[in-house]
């Protein structure tokens, strides 16, 4: 039986460019590197998000899986991202349980900025 999500990984083409986005723009802190720097992990809460370019056949896709990052303050986070030149692919929208907006990383992978109600 599945008890939790251990990690989510997303493919990138340029690991340094991706690291700059996830670390400098989104503020993630790397917690583990493997495969000569081609696999980078970021522990977030009880889970882990990873980026990798270690398998050339694993390609980024704007139509692939998205990661949802929970934030403390949706409006402040979006203002900071806009100040850094990040464009919203989908503006803020609400559901009965959350507010969210969608941006993309440099490879076009979708990233959801999320705030639970």
The number of strands is: 8
The DSSP helix count reads 2
Gross morphology is globular
Share of residues in helices: 10-25%
Major beta sheet, strand line-up = 1-4-3-2
Instruction: Name the CATH superfamily assignment.
Output: 2,3-Dihydroxybiphenyl 1,2-Dioxygenase, domain 1
Question: Looking at CATH, which topology would you report?
Answer: 2,3-Dihydroxybiphenyl 1,2-Dioxygenase, domain 1
* Name given to the CATH architecture: Roll
Unreliable stretches (pLDDT < 50, length at least 5) are none
Class of secondary structure makeup: alpha/beta
Strand content: 35-45%
Number of individual domains: 1
**CA radius of gyration:** 14 Å
Main beta sheet strand tally, sense and closure: 4 strands, mixed
- CATH top level class name: Alpha Beta
Encode the helix/strand succession as letters.
EHEEEEHEEE
Q: End-to-end distance, in Å?
A: 28 Å
User: Average pLDDT, to the nearest integer?
Assistant: 94
């Amino acid at each position: 039986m599945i008890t939790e999500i251990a990690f989510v990984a997303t493919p990138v083409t340029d690991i340094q460019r991706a690291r700059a986005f996830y670390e400098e723009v989104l503020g993630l802190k790397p917690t583990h590197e493997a495969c000569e720097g081609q696999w980078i992990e970021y522990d977030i809460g009880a889970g882990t998000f990873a980026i990798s370019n270690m398998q050339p056949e694993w390609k980024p896709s704007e139509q692939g899986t998205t990661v949802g990052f929970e934030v403390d303050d949706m409006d402040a986070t979006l203002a900071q991202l806009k100040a850094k030149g990040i464009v919203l692919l989908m503006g803020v929208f609400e559901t009965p349980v959350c507010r969210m907006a969608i941006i993309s990383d440099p490879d076009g992978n979708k990233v959801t900025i999320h705030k639970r109600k």
